[in-house]
Amino acid sequence: MTTTSPLGPSDALRAPAAGPKLHLAPPRGFVLFLFLAVIGSGCAQMSSALLTLSLKATRIDEAGAAGVISLATGVAGVFTVVALPLVGRLSDLSRSRYGRRRPWLLVGAASYVVGSLVMLAAANAWMLTAGNLFLTLGAVCTQVVATALIADQLPPDRRGPAAALVSLGTPLGALIGTGIGQVFNTSLTAQMLIPAVFALFAIGTLAVVLRDPQFLQERPQLNLREFLGTFWVDPVRHPGFALVFTSRMLVFSGVAAINAYQVIYLLSELHVDPARISGAVLLTVVINAGLTILVAPALGRVSDRLGVRKPFILVAAVVLGIGLYLASLADSLPTYLMACAVVALGQGVYFSVELALATQLLPDPDNPAKDLAIIKLADNLPVSIVAAVAPALLTVGAADGAQNYAAVFITGGISAVLGGLVILFIRAAR
Fold this sequence. Notes:
- Helices cover 73% and strands 2% of the residues.
- The protein has helices at 30-60, 65-93, 102-121, 125-153, 160-183, 188-209, 224-228, 239-268, 277-306, 310-329, 333-359, 368-394, 405-423, and strands at 2-5, 212-215.
């Protein structure tokens, strides 16, 4: 059985170790605090990914900056694949007097500050990589806990708006982070530390107000087989969960196709002035964040009221696919931005409603963090998949050294539509 404890253990509600799980209402304003925590995390994570990691790498080794960035991001990518399910499992197994989720929120908040300080002080590529690993740990902890809290704190018919806002937190954080970068463009210290302090405040506030279930049972012992099971969910026993994972992988592959090659496409195909490229990228971030925050929470609420998820997910995936096709046809920055708007509409609605559906198909609803962390792997693996497949697609029908970006975008669009169709095979939910 679980009990609930605020920040200190002295106020914990004690109960026998056996019996039904005790559910208490989340704190007032819980969804808002959750949203702000994800925004803070996205701000610190994405300001580094989009800006400060590259700036610091250039200062360390201007001629070899690309290699420094590849080292830092490559190591972080491998770490993310292992850390997401592992942190989720450890959180589920936590028997801390402060609850299961709060300690990991505090680890995440502290990791952002430590990582930013290490990156700022970095004098070589390995030190920069170490700092980036701390930032990655902050992102992993916050993502795992944020998605688990939706299942922990809210009943299924109230998860749509919360899932939408959690999905929107990262693009909004990216918008704030790039905005900070523009305002403090002469100070790398401010560009690194202000997002980290924002993350510390936002995530720390959620940790303080959270009513976190405290499990009183003895911590189960893990053998090797159970430990390896941390990274696996049996698709035969849990077909609905497996289909959600597959759908997300396919749709995120579409998103990764446009994100990975956006800057090069704007420069080489649409002939955007290099001096204006940062402003063009910022416009795409504004469009993405603005449209999704206007539409996704409202449709998440409608999905809750109707008690259906699959039609929203299918339509959103098709819209995303259409947006990618329009991007392949763009012949100027304005037409590309219009395509980005269509992508943003489909992406925002898909990720919000699909995450709510995932929380309804968990193999172990009382221990959701590990399985939802596996769902989050579907956010990260497509980056590697696209990186492996895209070089071949870029050469399709191309001549004289040209690059066929249309083939990459169209293939990504097909992948997104297939991801929407996969959802129709789920029988355990509507």
